[in-house]
């Protein structure tokens, strides 16, 4: 059966996460599988690089699917998108791939972006797309706190108690923090990169760094929280709406070129 890689964008607000669930809960995976069933009758099971939580968005999620016949990638993307309307999900690109390509297990890195806006007024055009806080944040202090998390560590403190990963040890390759002007305030963008992440790891890190930026935590307290290897040492977990899966890296990127 021909295999296809899909690059997917979605607004996570109306979905109960990526993964298909019992009981008919709306999920991104279920929506795409239903669209595929309109093209090829029968059950479908697509596999994604990452299982994003409820409310989390994506601009570069990757999944693969197997179909009975050969499709031109451009035409397949258009056909799936036609059956996804009006849901806020789109197949941005589609490419045929080798049978051994696996969206999850072939991935070498995942990249996430978190958008945080500091202003007193509520977000309007970006409602549901950013985390808004009503106070200023010190980006320099947050960079100092984030520096303690770079590298290979036991991230028990920064993972959900419900995380099913066999080991809490992960290597965080990058946390960059940049600021930009935003009407009535400032937008702070956090870019994180690693081979893989624990459940709620990014949101736990962002919520903790927000406390550093607000002056409630000194930057060195992040190092102490990490060393504690205790979920109770973590700061608050950020809400999901500012988080985006922006890209997945592969040894042979199916979307390169």
From TrEMBL:
GO terms for biological process: tRNA pseudouridine synthesis. One of its GO terms (molecular function) is RNA binding. The active site is at residue 53. Keywords: Isomerase, tRNA processing. The keyword Cytoplasm does not apply. The keyword tRNA processing applies. Residues 9-105, 146-251 form the Pseudouridine synthase I TruA alpha/beta domain. Substrate binds at residue 112. It catalyses: uridine(38/39/40) in tRNA = pseudouridine(38/39/40) in tRNA. Coiled coil: none annotated. Its EC number is 5.4.99.12. SUPFAM superfamilies: Pseudouridine synthase. It comes from the Bacteria. Pfam families: PseudoU_synth_1. Belongs to the tRNA pseudouridine synthase TruA family. Formation of pseudouridine at positions 38, 39 and 40 in the anticodon stem and loop of transfer RNAs. Homodimer. This is tRNA pseudouridine synthase A. It comes from Szabonella alba.
């Amino acid at each position: 059966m021909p295999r296809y890689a899909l690059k997917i964008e979605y607004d996570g607000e109306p979905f109960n996460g990526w993964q298909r669930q019992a009981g008919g809960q709306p999920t991104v995976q279920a929506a795409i599988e239903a669209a595929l069933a309109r093209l090829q009758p029968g059950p479908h099971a697509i596999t994604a690089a990452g299982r994003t939580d409820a409310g989390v968005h994506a601009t570069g999620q990757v999944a693969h699917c197997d179909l009975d016949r050969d499709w031109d990638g451009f035409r397949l993307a258009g056909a799936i998108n036609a059956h996804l309307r009006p849901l806020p999900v789109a197949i941005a690109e589609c490419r045929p791939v080798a049978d051994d390509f696996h969206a999850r297990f072939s991935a070498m890195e995942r990249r996430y972006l978190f958008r945080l806006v500091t202003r007193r007024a509520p977000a309007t055009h970006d409602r549901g797309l950013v985390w808004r806080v009503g106070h200023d944040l010190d980006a320099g202090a947050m960079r100092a706190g984030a520096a303690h998390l770079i590298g290979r560590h036991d991230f028990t403190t920064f993972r959900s108690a419900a995380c099913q990963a066999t080991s809490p040890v992960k290597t965080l390759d990058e946390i960059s923090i940049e600021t930009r002007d935003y009407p009535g305030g400032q937008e702070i963008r956090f870019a994180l990169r690693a081979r893989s992440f624990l459940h709620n790891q990014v949101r736990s890190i962002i919520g903790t760094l927000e406390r550093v930026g607000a002056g409630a935590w000194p930057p060195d307290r992040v190092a102490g929280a990490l060393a504690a290897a205790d979920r109770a040492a973590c700061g608050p977990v950020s809400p999901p709406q500012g988080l985006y899966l922006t890209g997945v890296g592969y040894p042979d990127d199916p979307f390169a070129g």
